Hints:
By secondary structure, the chain is of the alpha+beta class. The chain has helices spanning 10-17, 59-71, 97-102; strands at 21-22, 27-28, 35-41, 44-49, 79-84. Strands 3-4-5 form a three-stranded mixed sheet, with helices on one face.
Amino acid sequence: METDTELPTEETVREALRKVDDPEVGMSIVELGLVYRIDIAPQRVHVQMTMTTPACPIGGLITDDARRAIGAVLPEGVEMDIELVWEPPWTPDLMSESAKQTFGWGV
């Protein structure tokens, strides 16, 4: 059965993820450059993200928070997939300019 479900845009999902902070640094995972890719397909949203290190002790917490934030903007029946990836490895170069300035990098 086909539905008239309006999918969120990539920007809507990115804005939802801006509300997810890395609690160790108190900054959005988007600003930290942890969100690599957002794909919107019929009835499915796929997000590729990473952590600053594979050994991140709060990776599960951040992923759960991201899942809740995305779920809040998804219509019922739309699936979500969050994929943790390690390639390319995260570096501070992926951070937004404002995040770099917060840490005193690239000023």
